[in-house]
């Protein structure tokens, strides 16, 4: 029994990754692809400028794209993945959920709303319980869950491991983010060759608020956000894929670098089809992880850490994840798998 | 009256920048160029693989390179600039100073020795007083002063401005460093294209210790190092020149971002031939400074800052300087100008 | 007596370069800046996102931008430089010239029209004579002259030197073009990092036809295009500025590499304020010219060549020029200087 | 029955690729790894700085590296792959073959010697017959065959297709070569970021002579080199992997672009374990093949072509192959497979 899934915003960079990952998926079957009305009626091959390194799957290429409208998507689609631009998703995503669809969305809107689960399945699967709250409050038949921003996803698993073991107080994080995080056309070559950009609009705030929500406690009615003091500084650099982050994490208990590494190595993962065998890989080499060498570990779904050093109040370390695999498309896919596992489909 | 100067290690990347900057200098005249013994006897044109964007000065090109040995450098040379590899400088630099030469050195050895002035002329010119201590203790006729590491130089001027105005307590700094900081052959293209390297051997320690010494108080006999808690995380990225740094600075007083910007804008510079009119330029745009756009401000000698945000205990901001101009060759040149100004030549 | 000039399309990449070059110009004074109607009424500082490495000139920053319309440009402007997108220039450029303005344009439209001078002042200044033909045929009071495409400008001076000395028959040229040639937003970072694009739409044809017209003979009434067989293959690579080109040039006479180099070295330049002392610099080193090292020779206005090898029917060599200095803004500026020199203003 | 193979020069970039490709090979089993004497005695994990994107195979990691000396390699090794630097291979490779080993070598020495087969299995497998000549003349018990240079391998399959169908006369080729072609440390980041280098020492000659030998006819006693006039211009650009080449091929018969494409599409491949199903992929899109998007087609073993245009005497087109897969390690591996297939092991 496969689940029939649709992808909203299927022609964009994240949409393409989603299709690449869903096509061979054991439980999901592509049943609908939506895009802007100018693409509706075209074959996916015509509508999408395919830029993934593996060829476009043949059967997907011949599917007909429909407009991003609940009336255009077949009713027997069980699950929607949304990679809509947030300006588009603002109005359209609720329309789908009101119509009864269950949605795993990568769009940034609604992420910090009280009744919207923001989940990384390996970290806070219980936040899915907010779906009941959401249905009560909004009168929705369907459900909407969100995955966090790609830069947030990279650091939260190691932070969650530290928090669980030693209690987290303060976080300072500086990011070196790949250009693909801004979408295919997001960063021009003139902006970034031989350069770096020390600010990504809205990204600092997302990292600070989303991580507090992700690390928060769900008490059955609401999520008590974590009170760690998080400050982020986000930079764009000339790499294609893979966000590298320098983190200073202060903890309640005094810890050694080995304590920290151990907590991350042993952090329990959830068993979903797309989740890696080990969520966090710990490098011994001080100059790893590196984006190009390590972003594709475990099919791009593993988070890597390394470079541990003790500080006065905790540890500093580096972490890395593939921003469009673990960080966007794969994050949504995992959330879809979680919805299936937890009986929401 | 021009000062006759020599450059030790004249064929390397920093040596070439020094020559480019000294050639048109109002007070300095190139009188000796040294390199390894394999280059001795050759013209500078033959010995150096010139890689600076401006052509090699004609008169310099025809100078004969001599070995890096006190016996080979003419006695009437008044001032030596050293850009020797630290492994070479370890033995050779003291030999020159014992011989009576006054030396401004960029090599990393001796930088944190008690009796060696480590100076940024605009920040701690009074540390030059250590020369008397040095002469007493080591029996040297000459003098040796050092400039800090390029990544340290970038952040210390803005930190000094904050410290002077509000008292500095904690510093966290994450760097995005250009490949030229490792020398011409230091980073291979296979290592860095589409990549970033989250560790630079020894660099983190240099930033942590050198900044404490630079911000310290000289009491006439010794430098009391600043007790700020400094932790650094150093990254190499695919840029050619210009180190960009994300800084979190905690201060004793509560400050706003405008307080911080104001203190930096008004930080007093010293008047030396190569020092910029304004030491620190404050950008209003949140996405500046950027390496390629801003590294050459004021002939590569200005430090730029921007991106101020308030944090719980202070401010975060970004800073940038040209690592081989302000950060290495220009830093040594400024120290040479300071030695002249203060009557040591 | 300075000439009052206007820049059409002043906010784009070529427009910015033009302003950077015109601001300190001995004979030209900026009197009008135009842009799309959405920018009209704003200060230039507001309207343009300034991306040149030198700061925006203060007086220019405060000028008010007007719409690109003959009625909006003051009548006492003597000379217009156009860097309009070709789709815009198609209709608007003739409107200005009909109105009596003299125009030096970088836009690609009209370049191969029979009565439009397409000129590189150092190569074919006599083609300016077409202005009389143009006035007769079109009834224009003003005048319109064009400069060629940046990739064409790079190779035509060395080809002209060979043609003049030995007669040119066949040309094969392969280009390695910088991203700035496509405008600031023309090439995304995802397209070009760790990549190359072996085709630039329309560029091959431009190189083939424009070079034949430039090397043609003007007989007082029309230009007899050169009958050399020219075939081009154009590639975009991850460099910022500077087009590098591999050329095979077959000649009527048998020549040595030294014959070819000599002809280029001795090729006579014209004496205009912005023209370089020597038009073509010949490198002896086989691995030069290189874009980053050599694009700024003589303020970006010199063409460099090197790598000569004999072939069965001629020579092969490499050439380089700065595509937005020599190749676009500087090319238009030189044409403006030629118009002044020849009495058209 | 697997063949026991050894890799000479196993720690270098090509050696690492060879190991990555041999490890899962159906017919070959790694039995010996050699490196310089300083690495002898170490485990491969210690001796090699592994830089391939897939992890080092566990069993290979624990193998002990021996010196590159016939006495150190077990006698029961049936086949040697050599990726030695040519300066090392000059003396050592013949020593192994005299000792009876059969060798498939990627080193550039001996490639154009009369009695050394230089082969691309899909193009000129019959040249293997030179082994008999070689044994007669040199008194060798073993055998030595070579694969061509990576830049030659990229263009020869499409040229062979044209030659077979229409007769090849003249070739002009301009290359855009990746940095990995120079080995891991071959090109520094300072040399190539925002730059291109219009010359690769010796590479032009290799492309010109090797292609003539590869396209030559073996008459049972010697190879009659093809008399096509080949001229190459080689450039290094800032890409990691994948050589892109612009080719002008003149043919005896008049041909259309579709004739050329058809000949390439239908060019017959040989059936070896590592050879692609189709040797040459023809792109319809004018801006393909591109290095990053297309280098890994068919596991990096396919050659891609596109951008056909008619010229006066033939066609121009672009071609691309992965320089360390199809171009070096994979080329040697294919030659090893050919030796097995043809009964030389």
Automatic annotation (TrEMBL), chains A, B, C, D:
<protein>
    <submittedName>
        <fullName>Aspartate-semialdehyde dehydrogenase</fullName>
        <ecNumber>1.2.1.11</ecNumber>
    </submittedName>
</protein>
<dbReference type="Pfam" id="PF02774">
    <property type="entry name" value="Semialdhyde_dhC"/>
</dbReference>
<dbReference type="InterPro" id="IPR012280">
    <property type="entry name" value="Semialdhyde_DH_dimer_dom"/>
</dbReference>
<dbReference type="InterPro" id="IPR005676">
    <property type="entry name" value="Asp_semi-ald_DH_pep-lack"/>
</dbReference>
<dbReference type="GO" id="GO:0004073">
    <property type="term" value="F:aspartate-semialdehyde dehydrogenase activity"/>
</dbReference>
<feature type="active site" description="Acyl-thioester intermediate">
    <location>
        <position position="150"/>
    </location>
</feature>
<feature type="active site" description="Proton acceptor">
    <location>
        <position position="243"/>
    </location>
</feature>
<dbReference type="InterPro" id="IPR036291">
    <property type="entry name" value="NAD(P)-bd_dom_sf"/>
</dbReference>
<dbReference type="InterPro" id="IPR051823">
    <property type="entry name" value="ASADH-related"/>
</dbReference>
<dbReference type="GO" id="GO:0009088">
    <property type="term" value="P:threonine biosynthetic process"/>
</dbReference>
<dbReference type="Pfam" id="PF01118">
    <property type="entry name" value="Semialdhyde_dh"/>
</dbReference>
<comment type="similarity">
    <text>Belongs to the aspartate-semialdehyde dehydrogenase family.</text>
</comment>
<feature type="domain" description="Semialdehyde dehydrogenase NAD-binding">
    <location>
        <begin position="4"/>
        <end position="131"/>
    </location>
</feature>
<keyword id="KW-0521">NADP</keyword>
<dbReference type="InterPro" id="IPR000534">
    <property type="entry name" value="Semialdehyde_DH_NAD-bd"/>
</dbReference>
<keyword id="KW-0560">Oxidoreductase</keyword>
<dbReference type="GO" id="GO:0009086">
    <property type="term" value="P:methionine biosynthetic process"/>
</dbReference>
């Amino acid at each position: 029994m496969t689940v029939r899934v649709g992808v909203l915003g299927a022609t964009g960079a994240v949409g393409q990754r989603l299709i690449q990952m869903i096509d061979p998926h054991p439980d999901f079957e592509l049943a609908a692809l939506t895009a802007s009305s100018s693409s509706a009626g075209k074959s996916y091959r015509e509508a999408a400028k395919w830029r993934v390194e593996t060829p476009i799957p043949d059967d997907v290429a011949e599917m007909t794209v429909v407009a991003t409208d609940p009336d255009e998507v077949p009713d027997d689609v069980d699950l929607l993945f949304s990679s809509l631009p947030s300006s588009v998703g603002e109005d359209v995503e609720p329309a789908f959920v009101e119509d009864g669809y269950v949605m795993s969305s990568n769009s940034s809107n609604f992420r910090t709303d009280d009744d919207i689960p923001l989940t990384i399945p390996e970290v806070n699967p219980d936040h899915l319980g907010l779906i009941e709250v959401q249905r009560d409050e909004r009168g929705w038949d369907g459900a909407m869950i969100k995955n966090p921003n790609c830069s947030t996803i990279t650091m939260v698993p190691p932070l969650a491991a530290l928090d669980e073991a030693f209690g987290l107080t303060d976080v300072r994080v500086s990011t070196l983010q790949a250009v693909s995080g801004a979408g295919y056309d997001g960063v021009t070559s003139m902006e970034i060759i031989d350069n770096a950009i020390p600010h990504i609009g809205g990204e600092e705030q997302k990292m600070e608020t989303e991580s507090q929500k992700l690390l928060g406690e769900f008490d059955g009615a609401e999520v008590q956000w974590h009170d760690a003091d998080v400050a982020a500084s986000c930079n764009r650099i000339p790499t294609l894929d893979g966000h590298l982050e320098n983190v200073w994490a202060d903890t309640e208990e005094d810890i050694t670098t080995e304590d920290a590494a151990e907590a991350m190595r042993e952090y329990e993962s959830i068993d979903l089809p797309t989740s890696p065998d080990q969520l966090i890989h710990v490098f011994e080499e001080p100059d790893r992880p590196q984006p190009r060498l390590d972003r594709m570990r475990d099919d791009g779904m593993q988070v890597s850490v390394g470079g541990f050093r003790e500080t006065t109040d905790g540890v500093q370390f580096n972490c890395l994840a593939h921003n469009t695999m673990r960080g966007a498309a794969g994050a949504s896919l995992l959330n879809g798998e979680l919805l299936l596992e937890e009986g929401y489909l």
